[in-house]
């Protein structure tokens, strides 16, 4: 007996790590980040259209594993992501991820993608997009504290979207800084290596903190931050895991993705639950001010929200159609007679 062919919907386009790297390199990293930022900006503008919930986090002694779902009328997306600061000591990534985009109409997945590389790109795209609204005009110098996996992506995004071309690097591990210096000098940045976080922030208009430590760390103290600086704080993203002294938060105008999640995970977990914050989607829609004076200290208290991953998956889905940057994955059982799942199994014997 001949077996019926599986339906086309049974095969889900899969973007492997190898194909993601080919796609990013074929597009150009900065162009990729700029295009992705366009998708994120578009989705922030239609924020009320999305189902939103703080991510579901499963905490353990050494790390966290999270599911990040969201949906609009057309698509449902989720990302699986972990955060294990101790991993690098054992030769593993701190953060790994993969994600799915599905059709709301059928419930069938339409994309499965690696998201470790994509998360670094989307986090950087979001940071720099926000930087466009909050960083001081004409900023050229960025301090980068924490020179691990996210570091170079952040730098490229801030050059592509905000014109940053001078970097001041600091990491407690000099090997991480040397790695970042090599990668970034090869990309044409002017790089200064600093001996402390204090030294790194001197003369910087933007301060990016992207350290990984499973505790209330104090990467920046109040005296280190001067008027007019923009802080892009991405490393404090879990309960009990922060980077900034609370006094900085009291002086800064604070901008967040989704307050319900950021109050649990972000720097503002150190403040009263009703401390005023501005939602970025309102700034992007022109409904709330971004930076309103040259002296203001602005803070993007980034934790990473599901809509950014949804935008990233939507962008990848649009880019891979009709290309060989994906391969069909035999992932969904889809018998010709939808009620004969068992018969399909029998015919496969
Ligand atoms: N907000 C978001 O959307 C988002 C997205 C991805 C990652 N993250 C977070 O960003 C952080 C960095 O991620 P990564 O993948 O680059 O991690 P990583 O482990 O590759 O790099 C972190 C670096 O921070 C350095 N570091 C630790 N403590 C430090 C300190 N006190 N001062 C200076 N440097 C210090 C480490 O030596 C390491 O080089 C993590 O905390 C991660 O959870 C946030």
Automatic annotation (TrEMBL):
Q: Name one GO molecular function term.
A: ornithine cyclodeaminase activity
**Superkingdom, taxonomy of origin:** Bacteria
This entry's Enzyme Commission designation comes to: 4.3.1.12
Under the heading InterPro entries, the entry gives:
NAD(P)-bd_dom_sf, ODC_Mu_crystall, ODC_N
- Record flagged with keyword Cytoplasm: no
Q: Which UniProt keywords apply?
A: Lyase
Instruction: Tell me the SUPFAM superfamilies matching this sequence.
Output: NAD(P)-binding Rossmann-fold domains
Record-linked NCBIfam families = PRK07589.1
Name the UniProt record assigns to this protein: Ornithine cyclodeaminase
- Organism, per UniProt? Celeribacter indicus
Taxonomic lineage of this organism?
Bacteria, Pseudomonadati, Pseudomonadota, Alphaproteobacteria, Rhodobacterales
């Amino acid at each position: 007996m001949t077996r019926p062919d599986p339906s086309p919907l049974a095969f889900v386009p899969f973007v492997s790590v190898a194909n993601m790297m080919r796609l990013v390199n074929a597009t150009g990293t900065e162009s990729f980040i700029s295009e992705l930022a366009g998708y994120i900006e578009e989705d922030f503008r239609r924020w009320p259209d999305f189902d939103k919930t703080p991510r579901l986090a499963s905490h353990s002694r050494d790390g966290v594993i999270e599911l990040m779902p969201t949906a609009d009328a057309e698509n449902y997306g989720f990302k699986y992501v972990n955060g294990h600061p101790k991993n690098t000591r054992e030769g593993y990534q701190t953060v790994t991820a993969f994600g799915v985009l599905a059709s709301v109409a059928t419930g069938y997945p339409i994309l499965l993608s690696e998201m470790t590389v994509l998360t670094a790109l989307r986090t950087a795209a979001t940071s720099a997009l926000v930087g466009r609204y909050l960083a001081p005009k004409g900023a050229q110098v960025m301090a980068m504290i924490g020179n691990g996996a996210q570091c170079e992506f952040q730098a490229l995004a801030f050059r592509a979207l905000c014109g940053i071309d001078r970097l001041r690097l600091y990491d407690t591990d000099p090997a991480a800084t040397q790695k970042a210096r090599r990668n970034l000098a090869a990309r044409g940045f002017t790089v200064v290596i600093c001996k402390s976080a204090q030294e790194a922030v001197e003369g910087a208009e933007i301060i990016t903190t992207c350290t990984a430590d499973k505790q209330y760390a104090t990467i920046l103290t109040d005296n280190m931050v001067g008027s007019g600086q923009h802080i892009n704080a991405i490393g404090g993203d879990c309960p009990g895991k922060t980077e900034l002294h609370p006094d900085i938060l009291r002086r800064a105008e604070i901008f967040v993705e989704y307050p319900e999640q950021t109050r649990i995970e972000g720097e503002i977990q150190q403040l009263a639950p009703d401390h005023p914050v501005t939602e970025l989607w309102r700034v992007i829609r022109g409904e709330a001010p971004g930076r309103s004076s040259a002296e203001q200290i602005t803070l993007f208290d980034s934790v990473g929200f599901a809509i950014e991953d949804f935008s990233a998956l939507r962008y990848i889905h649009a880019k891979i159609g009709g290309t060989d940057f994906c391969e069909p994955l035999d992932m969904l059982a889809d018998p010709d007679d939808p009620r004969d799942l068992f018969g399909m199994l029998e015919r496969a014997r």
